[in-house]
Write a structure and sequence with these properties.
Number of strands: 7
Low-confidence stretches: none
Largest sheet: 7 strands, mixed
Strand order of the largest sheet: 3-2-1-4-5-7-6
Radius of gyration: 16 Å
Mean pLDDT: 90
Number of helices: 7
Shape: globular
Strand content: 15-25%
Distance between the termini: 34 Å
Length: 212
């Protein structure tokens, strides 16, 4: 599979994704609350992998400008429809991934990546790009599945089989410790690491990383 096929996968599933319920509402609300604590009215914010815009529409009112992006044109179309129904000053949606922005264009105070890093084809390179896009001492907030912590049968057999028949996108495999090391290698300082799951799982850590 390629990035183009990943985009097509999310285009095909966009409407089903938009209609699906949040798997862990309590954990999601905690993540929103913690994230809001880092956003300020003078901040420029970039959200990567925004999907159909649910999180952006909840957070954007607290920032000066908020650009929400996704690889899927269909996802962005749904998000844009939602924005027209509930206008939010300063919020814009665009089809894009991190690498579509100019390297060294350090214009964002905060970058958000919820359920994003594990879907990138090169998490290290993506983290490097994110760092370049941040202003000095800018922060990157993420909460992404660490597939390396999951059942061996799922990551070694089920996911590859689903990808082979077009039922799943590319998924990068790393553990929580490997993700922490990747961030450290790319000159991020981890300021906070929390578990927001209501059922006690630590496989999707909420991480606040500061550009060192």
């Amino acid at each position: 599979m390629t990035a183009i096929s990943d985009a097509r996968f999310w285009d095909r599933t966009a409407r089903k994704y938009a209609a699906s319920a949040v798997a862990d509402p309590e954990g999601y609300e905690r993540t929103l609350a913690r994230t809001l604590g880092f956003l300020q009215k003078n901040h420029s914010v970039l959200e990567l992998g925004c999907g159909t815009g649910t999180t952006a529409l909840r957070l954007a009112h607290t920032a000066g400008s908020y650009l929400a992006t996704d690889i899927s044109e269909a996802m962005i179309a749904i998000a844009s429809d939602r924005l027209r129904e509930a206008p939010c000053p300063g919020l814009a949606f665009r089809q894009a991934v991190a690498e579509d922005f100019l390297a060294g264009d350090d214009r964002f105070d905060v970058i958000l990546g919820f359920n994003y890093l594990h879907l990138t084809r090169d998490p290290r390179a993506t983290l490097r790009t994110i760092r370049r896009l941040l202003k000095p001492e800018g922060i990157f907030i993420s909460k992404t599945p660490c597939v390396g912590e999951m059942n061996l049968l799922i990551r070694r057999l089920l996911l590859p089989a689903m990808r082979a028949v077009g039922k799943a996108p590319h998924v990068s495999v790393f553990s929580v410790n490997e993700l922490k090391q990747l961030m450290s290698d790319e000159a991020f300082t981890i300021a906070e690491l929390e578990n927001h799951a209501s059922k006690g799982s630590t496989a999707r850590p909420f991480i606040v990383a500061v550009k060192a």
